[in-house]
């Protein structure tokens, strides 16, 4: 078994992408989570970039325990000095210095001859060694560099004291087979390569960053530089979660290679980064996208319900993903529909299921996703001739609340045409009004789930209340939407109660023991 070191550069290359820069506090929060995830190295930033980035590297070096903390530095004494200074408090520190080795970069960007670059690389590594024994050297744009020159630079950097040699595909130009050959060639042509760990750093301009990194690992690289969600310059870097899970799920292919990543922390880390940067991953993103463990098509749903591994190559729990989701839509079949209806408490005969299935398909053709409330509505429409109108109607309610007031609510409602009024106090205005409704109806349903969320990020946003209740062993969900969160909660609660009552009466009517006049 051989270990592949995971060098996370979310906080350096990742934040170089437009719109992804993070404050020192945000970086610190991410760094703590990266330590929990179990990365071997955190590239915390580029200390010479700004005072703020110096501060971020310094804070992380001070406070984050576990991984090696690293700062990037150009092959310049002033950059390396700042990196060394920022990293001082770290228990384990690395300076990562780099210079470009391709013709195009040397000629047009650096305006340096190859000999000057060679000399600069040597001096930079030697200088960095004054601050730490752990020095990484990168040949920027390695994949477009002339081979013999690349070998010479690497050999020189190792002689000067580099302990890790990084081979970046800076512009995402490589293809997997060719990149694997480059790693092999470096191993075969750099005489002192056995004194350093070979690292790779791939960009995704042609969508091959992960494939290139994995092929490099297969051919001898033992450190991979990557980022959470694959963020980074332009099209991004290789995604950490994809590399780690590929090595884990396909260990048969990668022959005994492993990482120390605690994969159950992957989803959490991904979502934390999304929240911090305000940029969410696309739904079909491998490993962490919303659809990574969701199934909408009937054939797949049937398979997954029979055995998850028919259509899932890893357990969602292994990456900390909440769970497999079965989404009902126009591609779904009877197996999934029946399962969901059963979970909602509807046990239909084959004949009744057939009727509902037809209605369900017709609705799904008009709507992207069919929710539980939609299914309940279909059931009511199709079978519940017992009661066409909703039994409870709220006529009026009033809530008094404030910082020195015990929240009190009065509600006037009608139940099957009969007016009822009640007043109640509560632990907050929503609690008070819900209790007043229960008192007026003389019911005490069990609240199984209750959530309120804003549908848009403004103070005048529409709030959506979603509830699940159980009344006399009958479960029902409800939904209310309004700019007023109390009104949204009242609507959602009454919606759930109406559904529970109508459903219970339906069940009773089917059993021919319907009690008249009761709630
Ligand atoms: C492939 C990568 O991801 S490399 C890392 C990229 N990341 C960043 O650039 C983020 C942080 N960068 C910054 O904040 C700024 O670019 C700074 C502070 C580093 C430098 O700013 P400035 O001094 O104004 O220079 P500017 O960014 O305009 O140009 C880069 C300079 O560095 C030189 N340079 C570039 N790479 C290297 C290197 N590896 N070693 C030495 N010098 C280098 C360039 O030739 C240029 O030099 P010049 O000013 O003498 O012409
Ligand atoms: C600084 C180096 C490693 C880099 O980010 C690149 O070449 O892409
Ligand atoms: Mg890069």
From TrEMBL:
InterPro entries: 2-IPM_HCS-like, 2-isopropylmalate_synth_dimer, AIPM/Hcit_synth_CS, Aldolase_TIM, LeuA/HCS_post-cat, LeuA_allosteric_dom_sf, LeuA_bact_synth, PYR_CT
Boundaries of every Pyruvate carboxyltransferase domain copy: 4-267
Keyword tags: Amino-acid biosynthesis, Branched-chain amino acid biosynthesis, Cytoplasm, Leucine biosynthesis, Manganese, Metal-binding, Transferase
Cofactors named for this entry: Mn(2+)
CDD domains, alphabetized: DRE_TIM_IPMS
Protein name as annotated: 2-isopropylmalate synthase
Catalysed reaction, written as an equation: 3-methyl-2-oxobutanoate + acetyl-CoA + H2O = (2S)-2-isopropylmalate + CoA + H(+)
Protein EC: 2.3.3.13
Its job: Catalyzes the condensation of the acetyl group of acetyl-CoA with 3-methyl-2-oxobutanoate (2-ketoisovalerate) to form 3-carboxy-3-hydroxy-4-methylpentanoate (2-isopropylmalate).
Subunit structure: Homodimer.
Cross-referenced PANTHER family: 2-ISOPROPYLMALATE SYNTHASE 1, CHLOROPLASTIC-RELATED, HOMOCITRATE SYNTHASE-RELATED
Pathway: Amino-acid biosynthesis; L-leucine biosynthesis; L-leucine from 3-methyl-2-oxobutanoate: step 1/4
Chain segments carrying region Regulatory domain: 393-519
GO molecular function, one term: manganese ion binding
Annotated source species: Hydrogenobacter thermophilus (strain DSM 6534 / IAM 12695 / TK-6)
Record GO biological process: L-leucine biosynthetic process
Similarity section: Belongs to the alpha-IPM synthase/homocitrate synthase family. LeuA type 1 subfamily.
Upper lineage: Bacteria, Pseudomonadati, Aquificota, Aquificia, Aquificales
Entry binding sites for Mn(2+): 13, 201, 203, 237
Enzyme class: transferase
Classification via Pfam families: HCS_D2, HMGL-like, LeuA_dimer
Listed GO CC annotations: cytoplasm
């Amino acid at each position: 078994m051989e270990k592949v070191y995971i060098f996370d550069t979310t906080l350096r290359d990742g934040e170089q992408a437009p719109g992804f820069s993070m404050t020192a506090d945000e970086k610190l929060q991410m760094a703590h989570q990266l330590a929990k995830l179990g990365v071997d190295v955190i590239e915390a930033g580029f200390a010479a970039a700004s005072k703020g980035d110096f501060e971020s590297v310094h804070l992380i070096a001070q406070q984050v325990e576990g991984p090696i903390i690293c700062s990037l530095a150009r092959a310049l004494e002033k950059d390396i000095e700042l990196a060394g200074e920022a990293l001082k408090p770290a228990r384990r520190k690395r300076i990562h210095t780099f210079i470009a080795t391709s013709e195009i970069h040397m000629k047009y960007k650096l305006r340096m001859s190859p000999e000057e670059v060679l000399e600069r690389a040597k001096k930079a590594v030697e200088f960095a060694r004054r601050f730490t024994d752990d020095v990484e050297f990168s040949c920027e744009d390695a994949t477009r560099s002339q081979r013999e020159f690349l070998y010479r630079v690497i050999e020189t950097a190792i002689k000067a004291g580099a302990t890790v040699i990084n081979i970046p595909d800076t512009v995402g130009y490589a293809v997997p087979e060719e990149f694997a050959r480059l790693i092999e060639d470096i191993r075969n042509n750099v005489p002192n390569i056995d004194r350093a760990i070979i690292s790779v750093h791939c960009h995704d301009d042609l969508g091959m960053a992960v494939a290139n990194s994995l092929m490099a690992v297969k051919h001898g690289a033992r450190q991979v530089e990557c980022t959470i969600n694959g963020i980074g310059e332009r099209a991004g870097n290789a995604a950490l979660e994809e590399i780690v899970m590929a090595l884990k799920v396909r260990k048969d292919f990668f022959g005994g290679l492993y990482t120390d990543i605690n994969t159950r922390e992957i989803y959490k880390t991904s979502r934390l980064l999304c929240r911090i940067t305000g940029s969410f991953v696309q739904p079909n993103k491998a490993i962490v996208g919303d659809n990574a463990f969701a199934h909408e098509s009937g054939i797949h749903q049937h398979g997954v319900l029979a055995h998850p591994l028919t259509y899932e190559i890893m357990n969602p729990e292994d990456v900390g993903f909440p769970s497999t989701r079965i989404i009902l839509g126009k591609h779904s079949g009877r197996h999934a529909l029946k399962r969901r209806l059963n979970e909602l408490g509807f046990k239909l005969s084959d004949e009744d299921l057939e009727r509902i299935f037809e209605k369900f398909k017709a609705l799904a053709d008009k709507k992207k996703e069919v929710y539980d409330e939609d299914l309940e509505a279909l059931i009511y429409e199709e079978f519940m001739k017992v009661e066409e109108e909703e039994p409870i109607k709220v006529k009026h309610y009033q809530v008094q609340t404030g910082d020195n007031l015990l929240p009190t609510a009065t509600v006037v409602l009608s139940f099957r045409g009969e007016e009822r009024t009640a007043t109640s106090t509560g632990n907050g205005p929503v609690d008070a009004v819900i209790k007043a409704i229960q008192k007026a109806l003389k019911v005490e349903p069990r609240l199984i789930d209750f959530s309120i969320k804003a549908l848009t990020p403004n103070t005048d946003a529409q709030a959506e209340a979603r509830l699940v209740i159980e009344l006399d062993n009958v479960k029902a969900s409800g939904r209310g939407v309004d700019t007023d969160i109390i009104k949204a909660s009242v609507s959602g609660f009454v919606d759930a109660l109406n559904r529970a009552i109508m459903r219970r009466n339906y069940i009773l009517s089917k059993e021919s023991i319907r009690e008249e006049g009761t709630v």
